[in-house]
């Protein structure tokens, strides 16, 4: 949270990692995520006079990133599909790791969630925003964000075939944060 005494431009760089993680969760492509973060920072820098000092810079940046992603997505709906498979051939899969739940399995299940549920889980789970902040960024009621996150966690548990109350045994902190409340909210 920017207390108003620090120039927000000086603070931008501290949020790059979180922005990239959020962008990657939305785009599912590292180069597209990098482009999205770059566009976000450019827009933020160009419109820094619109930022209200003393408010949450990180939430403001996440809102810009989210809006930029969905604006671009609306534009791409009019584009032609990858019929030759050229784009698909460039996709890479990282290797699975040992443990009850492989990271690759989680990613496959996570990508099956509707965009709104995935977004809610990233914001409140992996990125650590409060439900109220996430709701403000998405322009919806707090209850809507809570509902999306809970439905997303429940659906992930189903897709991953986890028994009720079953503990996850993973070391990836972001994945654990997203799934943390699945047992208690089920």
Biggest sheet overview: none
- Write down the Rg: 18 Å
CATH secondary-structure class of the largest domain: Mainly Alpha
Give, in order, the helices and strands. Answer: HHHHHHHHHHH
Structure description:
- With 186 residues, the protein is mainly α.
- It folds into 2 domains: 8-81, Rna Polymerase Sigma Factor, Chain: A; 100-179, Arc Repressor Mutant, subunit A (Orthogonal Bundle).
- It contains 11 helices and no strands.
- Helix 3 crosses helix 4, helix 7 packs across helix 9 and helix 7 (115-126) crosses helix 10 (173-179).
- The chain starts with 7 loop residues before the first helix and ends with a helix.
- Residues 94-101 and 181-186 have low confidence and may be disordered.
